[in-house]
Amino acid sequence: MEDRSIELTNVSAVYEGESLPALHEINLTIEHGEIAAIVGPNGAGKTTLLEVINGLLPITSGRRRVLGEIVTSGSHRLRQQIAYLPQDLAFDPVTPFLARDVVLMGRFAQLGPFRLPRRDDRAAISQAMASVGIDGLSRRPIGRLSGGQQRKVLLARVIARHPQILLLDEPMANLDPDAKSDISHLILRIHAELSLSTLFVSHESGPLLDSADRIVTLEGGRIVETAVTGARTL
User: Fold this and answer.
1) Domain containing 133: what range?
2) Out of 81, 114, 136, 151, which residue is the most buried by the measure of CB atoms under 10 Å away?
3) Domain total in the chain
4) Residue 100: exposed, middle, or buried by beta-carbon count in 10 A (0-12, 13-18, 19+)?
5) Nearest 5°: phi and psi at 123?
6) Does the model's pTM come out above 0.85?
7) 233 occurs within a structural domain
8) Cα dihedral 84, 85, 87, 91 sign
């Protein structure tokens, strides 16, 4: 069995229309079951790194392997195993989707095009929402929920998807202190219960950063430091 969930070897990447690389010769290995933090100043390339791992941004040089496979533009099946929560994803108050509809979106890869949810899909949705304590919000419009509740809906969507890798971009952004603590411990529980490999971007200290097995510091699109802590706690 492949021990590495993510393996980047001398990876560089450039956004379309740009001349300077957003990432420079990145070497990074994330083992199965590991939780790793990506830190650094604004513009360091932290979000870009998540996009490269998820296959959203092509690389210009190097080798990119995820779950033992080379990532290409056609790696749709592989990306089904990756759950990605973009930075500061929030919903407008008039967004028409109910909370359960948003969680259902996590099952789209399993459903395939033009297929209606089956009994097991509905069961996965119910179980996911119950596991993060929002089963009572299933019929509430997502835009009417608090920031912390919306973040829990998105985490329920992750659980319903049954991924192997979880990528989080600033998961505590714009939350109050109580919600930040709640979401941090919820992410740690999901990581442990689903045996995920988790990579998250963070600007702040707290339970999630304290529990990281590895802290990777980016500056100017380069990794300038990697600290292996082994400090996983729940």
Assistant:
1) 94-161
2) 151
3) 2
4) buried
5) -65, -40
6) yes
7) yes
8) positive
